[in-house]
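Running this now, will post back.
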Amino acid sequence: MKENITSEIKLLVIDMGIPVNMIGYTYIVECLKYMFKESHRHVFLNEIYFWISKNYNTSEECIDISIRNGIKKSKLNKTQKFRKFFKFCNYSPSSSVFLNTLKEILFIEHNM
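Update: finished.
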């Protein structure tokens, strides 16, 4: 994967209002990198969580909780980007909705 893509993913996640010191930030970035790398097929979150759990020596449950906490923080921070993409969400979006929305943003930016 190009370093450029990793930087763009990190900037997008920061723009969504997720602080870099949250472990959820790291897991969201890793999820998006995996989703971007596997762009030719639909990827299920349990597959991604399994892959990340092996790389970070943690459980899939911890990954899910950390990502959900990151999404909650993003909703609380209400950055301009969050409001733009989730303006009809009166609640925290699910992990699947959040990650797939960010994935689609990246795909659109890269004409995929």
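The mean pLDDT is 89. More later if anyone needs it.
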